[in-house]
Design a protein that fits this description.
With about 70 residues, this protein is mainly alpha-helical. It has one domain: 434 Repressor (Amino-terminal Domain) (Orthogonal Bundle). About 60% of the residues lie in helices and about 0% in strands. It has helices spanning about 5-15, 20-25, 30-40, 45-55, 60-65. Helix 1 crosses helix 3 and helix 2 packs across helix 3 (about 30-40). The radius of gyration is 11 Å and the shape is globular. The two termini are about 15 Å apart.
Length: about 70
C-alpha cells in the first residue's frame, strides 16, 4: 500500500519536478511538500485537489492507501 506522501514523491519524480517547483505550482513551501512526502504531515483537501490537478490523477487515487499508482 502506498501513502499519499509516497504517491506524491513518485508522481513528482516521474514528471521530473523539483520540490521547489512543485511548491510554487501549489502555492506552498517546499518544506511542506517534503513533510508530506515523508509522512510527517497530511494534506488538506484543497491541496490534495491541487496535486490531483497537477498530475492528472483523482483525489481518490492519492488519498486511498489501497489504491496503488503505477510506477
Amino acid at each position: 500500500m502506498q501513502t499519499f506522501g509516497q504517491k506524491l514523491r513518485l508522481l513528482r519524480k516521474q514528471h521530473g519536478i523539483t520540490l521547489r517547483r512543485l511548491a510554487e505550482q501549489l502555492s506552498t513551501s517546499h518544506g511542506y511538500i517534503a513533510d508530506l512526502e515523508s509522512g510527517r504531515r497530511k494534506p488538506s483537501l484543497e491541496l490534495a485537489r491541487k496535486v490531483a490537478d497537477v498530475f492528472d490523477v483523482s483525489v481518490d487515487q492519492l488519498a486511498k492507501d489501497e489504491l496503488e499508482l503505477d510506477a
